[in-house]
Amino acid sequence: MTPNQIQQLRQAINPQRIVCDKDELARHSHDCSPLAAIRRRRGNQATCPDLIVQPADHQEVSTVLAWASSNQVPVTTWGAGSAVTGAPLASNGGICLDLANLNQTLEINRENLTTRVGAGKLGGELEMELNEHGLTLNHSPQSLAQSTVGGWLSTRSSGQMSSRYGSIEDLCVSFTVVLPSGKIIGMPSAPRAAVGPDMRQLFIGAEGMLGVITDVTLKMFQIPEYRTFESCYFPDLNKGLSALQHVMQSGLRPFLLRYYDADEAPHAMVDPQFKHPVLFLGCEGPEHVTKAEMATAIDICRHHEGQTMGGRAVKSWMKRRFDFSGIQRIIDKPGGVAETIEVCHYWDGIRNTYNSMRAGLKPLADQVVGHFSHAYPQGVSLYFILSGCAADDALAEKKLLNIWWVAMETCIQTGAAISHHHGVGLLRRQPARTYLGEAISVLEGIKQALDPTGIMNPGKLI
């Protein structure tokens, strides 16, 4: 941005909302992706915004977007910077629109079991507030304490309880969005409606390229009366996958289903000697119903040669499930290589995707481990964790980019979705075009209609 443009913006909005501090600009120039950490150490400033604007309400968001559209200045929306794909990074400079001030809890409606909050509300803070009222979101991504409600919608987030409660698109009731022109749109709110297309879905997962979500109404739930846990190991990976499929297709809906391969199982069990694929199960609700559901799930696992071990390991995992310090320690070391890649496929394709990705990625990292979670009657997500090291950060960056290329090519070749819940951002932009195929033209048409000057989060998604 030119000095003249910055001066014009200061006249358009409260100048106290504008931040030009170098340390703050640097903090907003990287997200939580390993690639961003490496590039930060190498002094790469390619994703640094020219300035930060911290609006106080959706009217100020409207003013900023209208000004930016008229002056063709790029705008990238920032929640808490917890993305791992580069989605919130200002790859074209311009304005970083930080929504940290939009963090109020605006309403808790116990009768309808809905809550309305600002898009900048941190998930962990909201969950604690609801818990004080005996309520819960039942949306728990690993980044819960470090991610915002608006960020969840922008990336189509999914939490650890999605097999029972759904992902963010299922939990979102309505929201307010500011279009690139500055027009403020309040989405209609109802339990369900048949009044044309569901326009919410235009913006959920759009990663801020069509507008800025400013407040959100979410479903909430009563904290369940009873919970029970079980772990079950299997003689081989395929038998456990068959059990997982059987559970989901039988009509059961455990809130927790996580199936670890033999390489990740020792970490999940906190037992380096444990060498079997292991399934973690959790059921909740009214006590008598929950006990019956768990008993049925255990019967299914035993039918597939599973051996139960009790719930102690699962309870231990529940206490540390938001901890990703192990990966962070690797990333923080010069030359450290660590990455997480989540994809999704139907039941009849997931084994091929797992085997092909594992074979392709093993030569590129010291350790490749995987688990299956976010299960559906139709299929399941697959999550790989990779770790290793390189001689220096330059080689680590090359290795990470190669890991992503191999992973995405394998997904496309095996027919898997290239992301389940992390989104596209910078890292998946090119494979996203291949995955979407001819449908990309529809998305491009919507982008042109809503953002003709192309100011919103350029360089991402499409």
What does this structure look like?
By secondary structure, this protein is an alpha+beta fold. Among the domains are: 105-222, Uridine Diphospho-n-acetylenolpyruvylglucosamine Reductase, domain 3 (2-Layer Sandwich); 226-320, 2-Layer Sandwich (Alpha-Beta Plaits), CATH 3.30.70; 325-420, GMP Synthetase, Chain A, domain 3 (2-Layer Sandwich), CATH 3.30.300. It has helices at residues 3-12, 22-27, 34-41, 58-71, 123-131, 149-155, 162-165, 168-171, 200-203, 237-249, 265-269, 287-303, 312-320, 325-332, 347-361, 393-414, 429-436, 440-450; strands at 18-19, 51-53, 75-78, 95-98, 105-109, 114-118, 135-136, 172-178, 184-186, 212-219, 221-222, 226-233, 256-260, 278-285, 307-310, 336-346, 367-375, 379-389. Strand 17 and strand 18 form a beta hairpin. The protein starts with a helix and ends in a 12-residue tail after the last helix. 48% of the residues are buried. The model has no long low-confidence stretch (mean pLDDT 97).
What is the secondary structure topology, with strand pairs?
Layout: H1 3-12, E1 18-19, H2 22-27, H3 34-41, E2 51-53, H4 58-71, E3 75-78, E4 95-98, E5 105-109, E6 114-118, H5 123-131, E7 135-136, H6 149-155, H7 162-165, H8 168-171, E8 172-178, E9 184-186, H9 200-203, E10 212-219, E11 221-222, E12 226-233, H10 237-249, E13 256-260, H11 265-269, E14 278-285, H12 287-303, E15 307-310, H13 312-320, H14 325-332, E16 336-346, H15 347-361, E17 367-375, E18 379-389, H16 393-414, H17 429-436, H18 440-450
Parallel strand pairs: 2-4, 3-4
Antiparallel strand pairs: 1-2, 5-6, 6-10, 7-11, 8-9, 8-10, 12-14, 12-15, 13-14, 13-17, 16-18, 17-18
Helix pairs in contact: 3-16, 10-12, 15-16
